[in-house]
Write a structure and sequence with these properties.
heterodimer, A: alpha/beta, Rossmann fold, six-stranded mixed β-sheet, four-stranded antiparallel β-sheet, 32% helix, B: alpha+beta, 2 domains, three-stranded mixed β-sheet, 16 helices, binds adenosine-5'-triphosphate, binds magnesium ion
Chain lengths: 231, 450
Amino acid sequence: MLTARLINLHKHYDLGSFVVKALNGVSLDIPEGDFLAIMGSSGSGKSTLLNLLGGLDRPTSGQYILCGQDVAQMTDDELSAIRNSRIGFIFQSFNLIPQYTVVENIQVPFHYRPGYPPISPLDEARSIELAEQVGLGDRLDHRPFQLSGGQQQRVAIARALVNDPAIIMADEPTGNLDSQTSIEIMRILKKLNAEGRTIIMVTHEDEIAEQAKRQIHMKDGLIAGEGIFRG
Amino acid sequence: MGRYLRTVSLAMKSLMLHKLRSGLTMLGIVFGVFSVIAMLAIGEGASNQAQQQVLELGATNIIVVSKKPAEDAPAAGSSGAFILRYGLTRQDYRILSKTLKNRIGGIVPMREIVLDVRHIDRNLSARIVACTPDYMEMNHLKLSTGRFLSDKDIRDRSNVVVLGSETAERLFPTENPIGSTIQVQSRAYRVIGIMQNRTASAAVGGSLTAQDFNKDVYMPLDTFQARLNTGDYIVKRTSGSFSAESVIYNQITLRVLDRNDVIPISESVRETLELTHGAKNDFDVVVPLELLKQADQLRNIFNIVLGSIAGISLLVGGIGIMNIMLATVTERTREIGIRRALGARRWDIIEQFITETVVLSSTGGLIGVLLGLFTPTAFGLIKFVVTTYVMDSGTTSSEMGRMFIGMTPQIAWWSLPIAFGFSVVTGLFFGVYPARAAARLDPIEALRQV
Ligand SMILES: Nc1ncnc2c1ncn2[C@@H]1O[C@H](COP(=O)(O)OP(=O)(O)OP(=O)(O)O)[C@@H](O)[C@H]1O
Ligand SMILES: [Mg+2]
């Protein structure tokens, strides 16, 4: 069963005087339950690829099938609904909402569920349980600026999980963290993968990438190879 | 429903993040709404005042006043005796009484003149009003003590007077005036009654300015004509020359039985009098009911003019909100990106920002309404300051000054929901553009913002 299939995907940015070819024909299959690390040098197109995979952006050309549906055929609202219920995002810079507390941040995806069901006591319990799982049970009412980087990233992970998505997209989730915290985060991601979730992670650190099931290397908007290349 | 409550509470959370900014932004709306309510209250108060004055003149009354014809006026400084005869005559009174007998409830002729009145060593210049008993009722005057003039007083030409409240107070500061005598042109008159205090009523036009009944002295018409008005004319000394004016009645007031009859009867009064007075142009027909209609129109004009001025300040408040919301959208681009990434639709973003704007403007509106309720208090304070520190006796007694002092703003209750509604609409209107700008942002571009 495939989670995502990319066929000859292009993403070009027309800057007027010249065109930046961020993705230049990427084809890729991601099976269900995969743990994929996307590697490559800066500017090689990793984030661009991840954003397309996450339905945050649309390709210039090529086909992208997400959960059996052609993204090109989907409306903006349909794509939003998919992001809300099927995909959990973890960003390098955490991206928490500053005026909200830990629990409120974790609950943001609840507000945009299709049909806008009210936040039930069950939902409430789930968000607190997730906060506890990432080790923030005693900081539910803290605001992001009162938390360390690692703690903020764990809030972001809890938030990514709150709607029980099948796919987790993480763009350099450990990029802003020290090695000890990185190990913690990776442990959580591996556990999520073991639960059956598909994980797609961008990183440029070999030790992090090693822990994924599969690695692809990007170069100039193309997949240059698979597997671990040391050195 | 629950969902909207949630949206509103989230909006409050965002607004509370910048309390000072939200408060200052709200201020524009607060004062906009406040000034709408205050302006309408002042307009309402002014027109109520005007209406009250007209009603005191009597909505079913028709007042015919003698008017000095302009073209016949003697040139200033001309010497020699000269008698100017003009105005309403006994014949006019008889004709009007006869022809309108069945359609009117009363008719009162009146002669007035300002003379010195005296009690022992107290001297006072007062308006002597010579009239018949109906005068009191027709002018909505109320007796304080004693009695008013009676038919018998008229018949007997009794030497009696009824005093206005201020006249009584100034001539008799300590004693009881009833039974005492006052002197007018060295003849004595017995005081039989005192009137209640009454606020000055609107000017009737023609010979009269604003009528201040408190300074009156009422005397039986026939007494006046027998004792004071020898030969029906009164000699005036003006800067070295004598001039004599002969006026029989200064006013004839008619009370109409049916309000709908007021205008037609006033027209027939005018026509009747024109038959005898011809082109002399020495009388005026004043119809308080028409003044009432004018007062109504005045109210509408006031409301529109003052309301629009206040509306402009509300508009300015709205532009202030829009300005801040646009800045907020720019500042919170990243938040918008995060929400979009987490599944927010464009409409969700629009809803969020419009809600924030409306919460801001309607909170401002609510505060403005509450402030608006204090308009009469605030106006009273201003009135106090102005009357104590700015106005002197000259301005106080002027028409404008009297109007200002006599006026109390009256909150038009309908203006409260309307002003509040406008604050909500202002928020909606000025919130749309920033909200759409927020929703148009591309999620990726928005997330890239620092
Ligand atoms: N909105 C944009 N407009 C123009 N060029 C863009 C835009 N977004 C990305 N690019 C370009 O596309 C290329 C790929 O960018 P991308 O962010 O995918 O790189 P990356 O592999 O994630 O790099 P890094 O490791 O530094 O994050 C870069 O050359 C970048 O300059
Ligand atoms: Mg990147």
